[in-house]
Amino acid sequence: MTLISIILLWLLAYKHKVVLKGVFRKETLRWELVSL
Question: Which domain of life is it from (predicted)?
Fold first, then answer.
């Protein structure tokens, strides 16, 4: 990945960090359950 794309992704993640945190938490819990 180029530096520009990383920055753009970071900005998008920061802009929607609340939504992404919720999704990330759900995905993390799901993967933890799957890995058990």
Answer: Bacteria
Whole-model pTM: value is 0.38
Amino acid at residue number 19: V
- Summarize pLDDT for 1-36 with one digit per residue, the tens: 699 998 888 888 777 776 767 788 888 888 888 877
User: d(Cα 33, Cα 24) in Å, to the nearest integer?
Assistant: 14
Ramachandran assignment for 2, one of left (phi > 0), alpha (psi -120 to 50 degrees), beta (any other): beta
Report the pLDDT value the prediction gives residue 14, as an integer from 0 to 100.
Answer: 78
Distance CA 12, CA 22 (A): 15
